[in-house]
Each structure stands twice: as C-alpha cells, then as structure tokens.
Amino acid sequence: MYAILLSLALARAGLRPGSPPTGTLPRSRAERILVVGATGGTGRELVAQALARGYSVTALVRSASRLEVEHPRTTVLEGDVLDAAAVDTAVGGQEAVLSALGHKRFFYPTRILSAGTRNILRAMEARDAPRLVCATALGIGDSAGQMGLYYSLFTIPAILPFYFWDKTRQERAIAASAVEWVIVRPGVLTNGEKLGRLRHGRGIGSLLWTVRISRADVAAFMLDQLESDAYLRAAPGVAA
Ligand SMILES: NC(=O)c1ccc[n+]([C@@H]2O[C@H](COP(=O)([O-])OP(=O)(O)OC[C@H]3O[C@@H](n4cnc5c(N)ncnc54)[C@H](OP(=O)(O)O)[C@@H]3O)[C@@H](O)[C@H]2O)c1
What we know:
The protein is an alpha/beta fold. It is built from 7 helices and 10 strands. It has one domain: 3-Layer(aba) Sandwich (Rossmann fold), CATH 3.40.50.720. It has helices at 2-12, 41-52, 84-91, 112-127, 149-159, 161-175, 215-224, and strands spanning 32-36, 56-61, 74-78, 96-99, 131-135, 180-186, 188-190, 199-201, 212-214, 237-239.
C-alpha cells in the first residue's frame, strides 16, 4: 500500500508541460562546460568524454584529490554544491552545466539534490549560462513505476523514499527555471563499457522488469543534449 501511495504521489508531482522547445545552444555549440558531481561514476565519464569531444571542462568537486585528471582543457574547482558562492564562481563563464550529482545518505530526509540544484539554477540565471543537463532517475514524475516491480515495490519505497522525494523536488525546481533544461532519467546504472546503443524517450522502462544502462552511455547521452534541441524542456528516460 505504501509503495502504491508513494508511486502515485511521485506521479502527481510530475513535470508539467514546459514552454515550446526552442533553444539557443546548438546554434553556437557550447565550448565551456561545468560538470557537477565530477568525482562520481557518471561524472568521471562526463569529464573524460567531454574532453574527448573537445570541450573545455570545469569540474566542481568537494575534494580535488578524488579527480585524477590532468588535461590542459580541465579546471578543477573545490567547492560544495550547497555553497551558493562556490557554485556561482564555478558557473561564471560557462555555456552549459552537466549535473551527475548524487549521494548515499538514503535513510533520512535530505535536500542535497534539490538545494544544490537550486544553487546551480540561480547561478545559471544570474550568469546567463544557457543550458542545464541533469541526471535524475527513472521512477520520478511521469516515469513512476518504470523501474520495474522490484524497484517500484521494494527499493524505492523501502530504501530510497527520501532520495526520490528530493529528486522530485530537484526536477520540479529545474522545470520551473528559466534555463534551457534537459532532465535525463536513467534506469539502474552499471559500470559497463559504452555500447553506444541505447533507448531513450518517454515510455522507457518497464512496469515489470528492471532496465539498466552504463554510466558511460548515460554520459554520452547527456553530452549529446548539448548538441541537440530534441529533448529541450523534456525528461527522457534512457536504458540499454
Ligand atoms: N545508482 C543507480 O543505479 C542510479 C540509477 C538512476 C539514476 N541514478 C542517479 O544518477 C546520478 C549519477 O549517479 P552516480 O552513481 O554516477 O553518482 P555517484 O557516483 O554517487 O556520484 C555522485 C557525485 O555527486 C557528488 N556530490 C555529492 N554531494 C555533493 C555536494 N554536496 N557538493 C558537491 N558534489 C557532491 C559526489 O562527490 P564526492 O565524490 O565528493 O562524494 C560525486 O561526485 C545520481 O543522481 C544518481 O542518483 C543512479
């Protein structure tokens, strides 16, 4: 019963239709991007793949020693996403922000994802940084239930309810913002290699089965969103 109520509540909290998808970014492709969550699994892939695509990458990290990247087009800034001044400094001069922010404080209420994302959005609006691409998860908003039975009936309600509530607040903050946004909702993440074959869009996932995707493929799809308006102000699911 709790699982059903939680799923319904998450669905009710879903995104409302946004403005028509007209973006400014791909016209003059971004060159300078900020990666938040750069020391995490997806974040490391974002940094490596963005450098390979020719971007200049600034990484906002809590501890620079956790990111072993030495590249002339990389700048590492130490700071916490909950520190509005540090986020503002990191966003200054960027043309896009990619967020793979996450944490493991599952068992009590937190607002790290939503409060950190609000700091990012405020800085982007103040600094005219046009585009945010943010990873959340299948199971949020109108994708409620799409993580498969095991996650929908056990993992999300029993282990991740606080985390998913905060992800819901995070998505709502993004949808209400003035920036060009793309929310990317992956299935369960793996550390597998980049296959380059993935399914994306509304309706990805399954009521019955758990869908998965590698962090490397998620990162590639997130970077693709800097070069396309196809999912502007939309929240596609992604799965292998
Ligand atoms: N795991 C799954 O199966 C799954 C499925 C769907 C979606 N997702 C979502 O996909 C996203 C990426 O997941 P992941 O597993 O690749 O991430 P991850 O390895 O858990 O990395 C999270 C990143 O966020 C950073 N971070 C946490 N708190 C921060 C703070 N206060 N200030 C600045 N940075 C902070 C971490 O930095 P530190 O290194 O300093 O801790 C780390 O770089 C997350 O939002 C996750 O919830 C995960």
